[in-house]
């Protein structure tokens, strides 16, 4: 008959220091909050600039007819409508395809500039959403690191059998 040594599981602190892991977790959470705040502030700034321009989507647009351009969807639809109007005015030709002395060329050029400005605001909205999404992920990763660093280590001890 063998005698088994009685053992008990033990909860012990980690063998290695976890201070850096905790610090990285806190930095991740703070960085995530900052990214979300910056994304919101930028969104508000772009929206206020669009509102200040007082652009109304025309009645022949594919959507949002009569609405003020105040966000990414209305800006995209307005840019598309401007492009359609410019192509109609130029007989389907782009700025580069028109002769240099064509009087419509200036109108098409201005339409191109307006479209570029509106598309820039659409891209800015996308960057705002991206920053906020990365902020949320950063908070989640930071929280997970903090939780892992604070979790005690459970050491499972096996019973050692005595030699015969």
- Count of alpha and pi helical runs: 3
**In what range is the share of β-strand residues?**
under 5%
Percent range of helical residues: 55-70%
Major sheet summary line: 2 strands, antiparallel
SSE string:
EHHHE
Shape assignment:
rod-shaped
Cross-sheet strand order for the largest sheet: 1-2
Q: Could you tell me the mean pLDDT?
A: 88
**Number of E-state strands:** 2
| Helix-strand makeup class | mainly alpha
Measured on Cα atoms, how large is the radius of gyration?
Answer: 31 Å
Q: Could you tell me how far the N terminus lies from the C terminus, measured between alpha carbons in angstroms?
A: 8 Å
Residue stretches low in confidence (pLDDT < 50, at least 5 long) are: none
How does the SSE layout of this entry go?
Elements: E1 10-12, H1 19-53, H2 72-89, H3 104-150, E2 153-155
Helix pairs in contact: 1-3, 2-3
Description:
By secondary structure, the chain is mainly α. Helix content is 61%, strand content 4%. Helix 1 runs antiparallel to helix 3. The longest helix has 47 residues, at 104-150. 18% of the residues are buried.
Short description:
The chain has 164 residues and is mainly alpha-helical. 61% of the residues lie in helices and 4% in strands. A two-stranded antiparallel sheet has the order 1-2.
Relevant terms:
164 residues, mainly alpha, two-stranded antiparallel ribbon, 3 helices, 61% helix, rod-shaped
């Amino acid at each position: 008959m063998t005698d088994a040594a009685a053992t008990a599981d033990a909860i012990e602190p980690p063998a290695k220091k976890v201070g850096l892991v905790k610090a990285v977790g806190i930095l991740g959470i703070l960085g995530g909050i900052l990214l979300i705040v910056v994304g919101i502030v930028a969104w508000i700034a772009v929206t206020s600039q669009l509102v200040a321009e007082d652009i109304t989507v025309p009645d022949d647009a594919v959507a949002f007819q009569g609405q003020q351009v105040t966000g990414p969807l209305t800006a995209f639809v307005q840019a598309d409508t401007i492009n359609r109007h410019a192509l109609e005015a130029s007989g389907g030709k782009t700025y580069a395809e028109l002769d240099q002395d064509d009087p419509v060329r200036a109108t098409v050029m201005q339409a191109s500039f307006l479209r570029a400005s509106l598309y820039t605001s659409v891209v800015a909205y996308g960057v705002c959403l991206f920053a906020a999404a990365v902020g949320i992920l950063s908070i989640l990763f930071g929280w997970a690191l903090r939780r892992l660093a604070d979790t005690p280590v459970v050491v499972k001890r096996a019973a050692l059998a005595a030699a015969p």
